[in-house]
From TrEMBL:
Belongs to the MoeA family. The lineage of its organism: Bacteria, Pseudomonadati, Pseudomonadota, Gammaproteobacteria, Vibrionales. This is Molybdopterin molybdenumtransferase. It comes from the Bacteria. SMART domains: MoCF_biosynth. Its cofactor is Mg(2+). It comes from Photobacterium alginatilyticum.
């Protein structure tokens, strides 16, 4: 085993359990307009104020009638028309039918709709070719949603699926939990912002862009504090500014034994646990508090930073946000079509490309270079291949577990 696979590493499941045991939901409730609710977490059950549909209506273009009349005859006289928004204002009497369009209100007295393709028309005399049961092709009151139904439960995040539902009920405002605020910055004299020329020994600050993208997808209000140089005074100022947020996320400077100002200041100002996690990439991780702000220290390598943010910080943010209906990314079994190199010791999250074979089998191949600095492999991937802690090399044809990227990766 190599140095990164030394015994005493914390399983990722243990790390996540520890984090979630400490973090409590913010529970600050706000009222927002429906147009502002997208991505927000619902703070109380939303009950339907109306029935949907609010009146019985036709599921077909055709004719509304009294089903009992067809026991005596197959021909009825058309007595009027009912259109969506312009209902028939009379009563459908014995021996009569009403021309009706899809979605139009059922006339009083009628209980059935026969589609126009099942009729023969001779002026106002309509001959019906079938005799359906009562209530055929009729959508009753409350067929979709009934008055008082829970339409969106507390703890759900509003998505594009909920927005039209709430609008269809005439709901103009909703109670939501306040979004968590998350401050983040990068540290290092070697870092340069995109657009600046690089000099010897310098690299572009990529982590901040990946971190911001994921945090925004997690539903956070983000505070980008930029690049902080390796200067104790500047770092202390950044930490002071960051503690105005609910959470602070940094990348780099949290490895055990690392001579870094970031770690020194964390030791001074916070109650931080510096963990060595049995995951690859992403062994060094720090978690704790600075004043009243949660702190998550990510590894410095780009893939490691994104992976730990995705696997450990994402569910933490969900709990902080009150998202009690949060579901972790979906995992499935797949057949490996390429070799996956691995040594026992850590749970390995390798970047993979899965597809469905013509035979319906889920298959997965490696993206190639799995180095923690090789971010092009994240761009190519559509899943993680989750290789168990004690598992070794995987050969083509073996079964593996894949974790599909959730919406935050797209």
């Amino acid at each position: 085993m190599g140095c990164c696979d030394a015994p005493g590493l914390m399983p990722i499941e243990t790390a996540l359990t520890k984090i979630l045991a400490e973090v409590k939901p913010l529970e600050t409730v706000q009222t927002v307009s429906l147009s502002e609710a997208m991505g927000q977490v619902i703070a109380e059950d939303i009950l339907s104020p109306i029935n949907v549909p609010p009146f019985a209506n036709s599921a077909m273009d055709g004719y509304a009638l009294r089903s009992a009349d067809l026991e005596k005859t197959d021909t009825l006289m058309m007595a009027g028309k009912s259109f969506a928004g312009i209902p028939f204002e009379g009563v459908c009497g014995e021996g009569q039918c009403i021309r009706i369009m899809t979605g139009a209100q059922m006339p009083e007295g009628a209980d059935t709709v026969i589609m126009q393709e099942e009729t023969e028309v001779d002026g106002d005399a309509i001959r019906f070719l079938i005799k359906p049961p009562a209530n055929d092709n009729v959508r009753p009151i409350g067929d979709d949603v009934r008055l008082g139904d829970v339409v969106v439960a507390k703890g759900n995040r509003v998505t594009a699926r909920e927005m039209p539902l709430l609008a269809s009920l005439g709901i103009a405002t909703v109670s939501v939990y306040r979004r968590p605020s998350v401050a983040f910055f990068s540290t290092g004299d070697e870092l340069r912002s995109v657009g600046e020329p690089l000099e010897a020994g310098q690299i572009y600050d990529s982590n901040r862009y990946g971190i911001r993208a994921l945090l925004e997808k997690f539903g956070c209000d983000v505070i980008d504090l930029g690049i902080i140089p390796d200067n104790p005074e500047k770092l202390r100022e950044a930490f002071d500014e960051a503690t105005k947020a609910d959470v602070l996320v940094t990348s780099g400077g949290v490895s055990v034994g690392e001579a870094d100002y970031t770690k020194d200041i964390l030791d001074e100002q916070g109650e931080i646990g510096f963990w060595k996690i049995a995951m690859k990439p992403g062994k060094p991780f720090a978690f704790g508090t600075i004043k009243d702000t949660w702190f998550c220290g990510l590894p410095g390598n780009p893939v490691s930073a994104m992976l730990t943010l995705y696997q450990l910080v994402q569910p933490m943010i969900a709990k902080l946000a009150g998202h009690s209906q949060y579901q972790p990314p979906q995992r499935l079994k797949a057949k490996a079509t390429t070799v996956f190199k691995k040594r026992p010791g850590r749970t390995d999250f390798q970047r993979g490309i899965y597809q469905i074979s013509p035979e319906g089998q889920i298959e997965v191949a490696t993206t190639g270079n799995q180095g923690s600095g090789a971010f092009s492999s994240m761009h190519q991937a559509n899943c993680f291949v989750v290789l168990e802690q004690e598992r070794g090399r995987v050969m083509p044809g073996e079964e593996v577990t894949i974790e599909l990227f959730n919406h935050t990766m797209y």
